Amino acid sequence: MDRPFAEHTAELERDGYTILHGVFDRGRAAALVDELGGLAARLGIGHGTNGFEGYSTVRIYNLLAHSAAFRSIPTEPAVLGLVHHVLDAECLISSLSSIAIGPGEVAQPIHADDQVMPLPKPHVATVCNSMWALTDFTEANGATRVVPGSHTADRDPEYRADHDSVPAEMPAGSVLVWHGSLWHGGGANHTTTTRVGIAMNYCAGWVRQQENQQLGIPLDIVRTFDRRLQKLCGFGVYRGLIGHIDQQTPAQRLFGDSSSRMLWDLDRQD
C-alpha cells in the first residue's frame, strides 16, 4: 500500500473518501482498456441515453460474466481491506462495471450511491464503492468529483443543484475508495481523449445488490471462481443465516461446498 492503512481509514472517516496509489501498473491498465474496447464492440454497447449515465459515456455492466480479466479486481487486498473497514468482512459485490467518459461529456449530477435506500441519514454504512483509474484522471478529462465530508450529511444532495466539489485526480493504477453516502459524480470531459475507469462497488451483506449477481453470471462461470469471489457474488450467507436455502448456503446447494457453516451449527451437540 502506498501509505499506512490507518491514514486511509482516517481519511475515509473524516472526508468520506481516500485514494490508493500504485495498486496496479500501467501495463495492466492498458490491457484492461483494450479488453473493454473489445467487449463494447462484441456486445454492441454504445453511448448512454440519459443524463445520469451520460450521452458521451460508454458503460459495460456485469463484467464478471463477460471476461476472466476482471476476476481479480473484487478481491484486491489493498482495496478490500478498506471496504471491510467501512462495511465488514461479509460484504458483497454490488456491481462491477466500466465507465468510459468521452470527449464533450458534461458533468454527471452530484449524488450519493445509497440515496435510493429508505433510511434516515446519517446511517450505518450500507455501500462502499471504488473507482479504478485505467487512464489518468484529471480535472480536465472528467475525474470523479467529490464533496468532502458530505457522507455525514443528514440528507441527500438536491438533484442537478450546484454543489461545491473537488476533482479526485489520480494517475492510472490508482483506486478511489468512498463511503456510499458521499456526494459525488463524474466530471465533465473537456479534452480530446477518453477517461476510462472501472467501478468496483460493494454493499453490506444484508443489503440487496445493485446488479443481480446470482442470475447475471452463468453458473458454469461461477463454478470456476475461487471461494472468496463466489461468496462476494452472494453465493454464501450473511452471518451464517441470511440467504440460506434449506439450511445450506447457495454454494453448498449448487457446488457442493462443504467449508461453510450455518449459524445453527454453532449449537450442535454432536
Description of the molecule:
It is a single chain. This protein has helices at 5-15, 26-43, 77-86, 213-216, 219-222, 227-235, 250-255; strands at residues 17-20, 57-60, 92-101, 127-133, 145-146, 166-167, 175-179, 184-185, 195-203. The chain has 270 residues and is of the alpha+beta class. The chain has 2 domains: 5-235, Jelly Rolls (Sandwich), CATH 2.60.120.620; 237-270, no CATH class. The strands form 2 sheets. It has a 6-stranded antiparallel β-sheet with strand order 1-7-4-9-3-2. Strands 6-5-8 form a 3-stranded antiparallel β-sheet, with no helix packed on it. The radius of gyration is 19 Å and the shape is globular.
Whole-angstrom Rg: 19 Å
Number of domains: 2
Average pLDDT for all residues:
95
Oligomer: single chain
Topology overview:
Layout: H1 5-15, E1 17-20, H2 26-43, E2 57-60, H3 77-86, E3 92-101, E4 127-133, E5 145-146, E6 166-167, E7 175-179, E8 184-185, E9 195-203, H4 213-216, H5 219-222, H6 227-235, H7 250-255
Antiparallel strand pairs: 1-7, 2-3, 3-9, 4-7, 4-9, 5-6, 5-8
Provide a quick synopsis of the model:
With 270 residues, the protein is an alpha+beta fold. It is 23% helix and 17% strand. It is built from seven helices and nine strands; from the N terminus they run H-E-H-E-H-E-E-E-E-E-E-E-H-H-H-H.
